[in-house]
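Entry:
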Amino acid sequence: MIKEKNSNQKKLTIGLFTVYFLVLTWIILFKMQFSLHNLVGLRSFNLIPFNGSMIVNGKIDMKEIIYNVIVFIPFGIYICMINNKWSLLKKILPIASVSLIYEVLQYIFAIGASDITDFIGNTLGGIIGIVIYFLISKLFKSNQKMNKVLNIIALIITILIVVFLSFLIIVNL
């Protein structure tokens, strides 16, 4: 019975991670657009960290970097929920890989500016998620209980996001 509950928890975690990953892809690659026609054919590649993304209208603007960090925090938490026994490096590797793939795809398909700052921010966000998971784990006696609580929170947030996105889609039809 306990193994079955753990299996159901793991399935829920993977399902929620899948929804998160799809929304993340929509945000990063498709810039939250509902039509591919709205994507600007931009192809640029910046390898100088914190160069172009911080200066907007002659002022330092950290919003883009902060947003990149924030949207990748759940990635780190989900990685820990799915396989907490991995080493820190094994947890960071998929986060950094996905971020790198997003940046390369943006360049290949000319759907955004590929920027090392985005890669750094995304990876940092995932690492922060790993740290948050570690800190939360200190409050719980077992990972199963913690993952159950995190799944409930993630399910509520996912439902709210899906409802909000559905509303946006309906309004923009």
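The chain has a mean pLDDT of 87.
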